[in-house]
Amino acid sequence: MYEFLSSHKRHDIVDMQEIFNEKKNEILKENQEIESIIIPMYKKKMDNIAGKISTSTAKFDELEIEAEKHRKLWHREVDNNFNKVDSMIKFTRENYLTSLKSHQSKYKNHIPDLMQTVDQNKEILKTDKVSDVNNYKSKLTEYRDIPADIDVKVPSLNTNTVQGRELSIELGEYKATLTQTSLSSLTERVSLYLSMRELLEKPRVIATIPTGIQPLCQVACVGKDEAWVSGGFGIIRRVDIHGSLQEPVSAEFVLSPYEISVTRQGELIHIDSFNGTVNIVRDGRTEVLITPPQGWTPGGLCCTRSGNILVNVKSKRQNKILRYQGKILRQEIYKDEHRNIIFKEGHCVLNLTENNNGDICVSYLNAGIVIVVDKTGRVRFKYDGTPARREKPFSPRLIVTDSMSHIIVTDNNNTCLHILDQNGQFLKCVDNCRLNKPIVWIVREGCG
């Protein structure tokens, strides 16, 4: 019996208990390595990345602060130059006017003496006294020596503006120039050329993503592979690039679905028009983030790259844009530098997006225009759709920007997209890639 267990047709027989023990030892060693080496390594990597995130965030915050500091310095330098120009104008004005008035006084002071001489000569002409006539002394030579005219020329103010390159101002012998140069101009030109070439090619559909929502109203991207989508009946869902639902059905909300955006942390924020608030969704729970001032209701919505939130608020027929940092109101935008109202009266909300340079791009259906203001609220330009030469009136709806700072706005009347550069120059229209009521197709990018 023993010989049978030990070998079989010259093959070694291994004890099952031994195999069992060896397997258990192998599993034990694997577990020990995972617990003692691999998991700590993963945690260390995770901590390293967390440290890098924290450090990078702090450095980017410092960059923003530094840039803002230099913005103020540049503005101060420009103001200093114009203050010098103003001082020169005032100084030259006073000197020139003083000189002219001095010469005017000279002429004025001579006139009474001349008139007195004329009167005296008239009396002499009337008299028959020989002595008076013989004693007369002519002053004509003196009077003919009229003070010379003063040649005063008001200096001209010359300016030169090459947008994006140079600003200069010149008054008399004073000249100030602000020049923009680029160390990577060749790279930028190549990048711009490739971008423009790609932009001018025929557009094509690269993906169709099913959402299960009809009608689809807005899309707010979360990274590259997921997005929040909103639609009719107050439905909001999170889907991936294949259309698969990434959030449970309980994440659907009964509210006004038309305005959604995503924070830098990938959290959904949306307008609750019923309660008049801006809400945020965290871990599947909805919280009130912003309550606008009393009498104002929220409309358009946009998260900025700096972490601020831009909210369009309405009061009756008036519109404003409010900038919030968390729950704190930091800025109101509704008047231009001349104290004129930027956004005319109307019932429609303002659709908002932020460009890479910090400009706030506004699609304003009430006036049928796109308005772009800078961070301070100064109006940079307006676009009314005229350069596109479409058949029907321009009807701007949703608006976004891309990585090249192009501004893309939907035109519902003409079923197309208008594409502008960041300075408002019209580039082209897109109307031949199966668009159907593009108000429901445009994608609003998330921040982050």
* Biggest pleated-sheet summary: 4 strands, antiparallel
* Spatial separation of the terminal alpha carbons: 75 Å
CATH architecture of the largest domain: 6 Propeller
Q: Gyration radius, to the nearest Å?
A: 39 Å
Tally of helical segments: 5
Total domains, how many? 2
How many strand segments?
Answer: 24
Q: How big a fraction of the residues is strand?
A: 25-35%
Question: What would CATH call the class of the largest domain?
Answer: Mainly Beta
How would you spell out the order of helices and strands? HEEHHHEEEHEEEEEEEEEEEEEEEEEEE
Shape: elongated
In the sheet with the most strands, the strands line up as: 9-10-11-12
Relevant CATH superfamily of the largest domain: TolB, C-terminal domain
> Low-confidence parts, pLDDT < 50 over ≥5 residues?
1-6, 182-194, 248-252, 440-448
Query: What is the share of helical residues?
Result: 25-40%
Derived structural class: alpha+beta
What fold name goes in the CATH topology slot of the largest domain?
Neuraminidase
How is this structure best described in words?
The chain is of the alpha+beta class. It has two domains: 73-135; 189-440, Neuraminidase. 32% of the residues lie in helices and 29% in strands. The chain has helices at residues 2-6, 16-126, 130-134, 140-144, 185-200; strands at 7-8, 11-12, 157-162, 166-171, 174-179, 216-222, 226-231, 235-240, 260-262, 268-272, 277-282, 285-290, 297-303, 309-315, 318-325, 328-333, 351-354, 360-364, 369-373, 379-383, 396-401, 407-411, 416-420, 426-430. The strands form seven sheets. It has a four-stranded antiparallel sheet, with no helix packed on it. Strands 13-14-15-16 form a four-stranded antiparallel sheet, with no helix packed on it. It is elongated. The relative contact order is 0.06.
